Amino acid sequence: xxxxxxxxxxxxxxxxxxxxxxxxxxxxxxxxxxxxxxxxxxxxxxxxxxxxxxxxxxxxxxxxxxxxxxxxxxxxxxxxxxxxxxxxxxxxxxxxxxxxxxxxxxxxxxxxxxxxxxxxxxxxxxxxxxxxxxxxxxxxxxxxxxxxxxxxxxxxxxxxxxxxxxxxxxxxxxxxxxxxxxxxxxxxxxxxxxxxxxxxxxxxxxxxxxxxxxxxxxxxxxxxxxxxxxxxxxxxxxxxx
Length: 241
Ligand SMILES: Nc1ncnc2c1ncn2[C@@H]1O[C@H](COP(=O)(O)OP(=O)(O)OP(=O)(O)O)[C@@H](O)[C@H]1O
What we know:
The structure is a single chain. By secondary structure, the protein is an alpha/beta fold. The protein contains six helices and ten strands; from the N terminus they run βββαββαβαααβαβββ. A six-stranded mixed sheet has the order 6-7-8-3-9-10, sandwiched between helices. Strand 1 (10-23) and strand 2 (26-39) form a beta hairpin. Helix 3 (110-118) packs parallel to helix 5. The radius of gyration is 17 Å and the shape is globular. The site of adenosine-5'-triphosphate (ATP) has 13 residues, from strand 1, strand 2 and helix 1.
């Protein structure tokens, strides 16, 4: 069953997005006309084989990259017409990113890593609240080297959500984790999605993880080959791989 109504307009809308990377004489067609939407509060799992274009699409949605052709809207804003400066402001104000590798500052504690964001964001939560929401209330004064991979990833999630982004883009957040710690990370993401209504895109290689999604989008060779509502959504704790 869908857990959330789909009454409002999409947060993201990609229309006919193509991306061609040119390296010398070689052209790689990473995306070949992708249409996709992300609705308010929705958790979308993006699946596909290696090289199918998942990261390229996510980077374009998050304005880390620009399409070769096509349009990307964030609410009513056409990102493909925005300047670099506007795109930087868009990322800073609206998007949280979580990557496979946590990119924490090793010499700072969990709390201090999150504070790097809360000190510059416009309407942040406290680092403590962010770490609690990410499921890590008891490790705030630990350094990254004192934390497990799953705990480090939850610090990265806390850092990503501390500015209260409307969208969370997660590229293989469990890719470096075993299944037990991977489930804990998925639980943190599902909790944020449920409590804060943060629309979330989650890239994974792991087909089992699609079961926690509201909707599943599958890419193959730069095209969307499946886009379906998941009618039997399960809790992360029920996922095993
Ligand atoms: N900066 C780049 N320059 C040239 N080619 C690129 C670049 N980034 C990605 N590509 C190519 O674009 C295609 C899609 O890559 P992308 O990283 O989006 O796939 P993916 O589905 O995320 O793969 P993976 O699951 O392995 O991360 C691949 O063929 C890749 O080699």
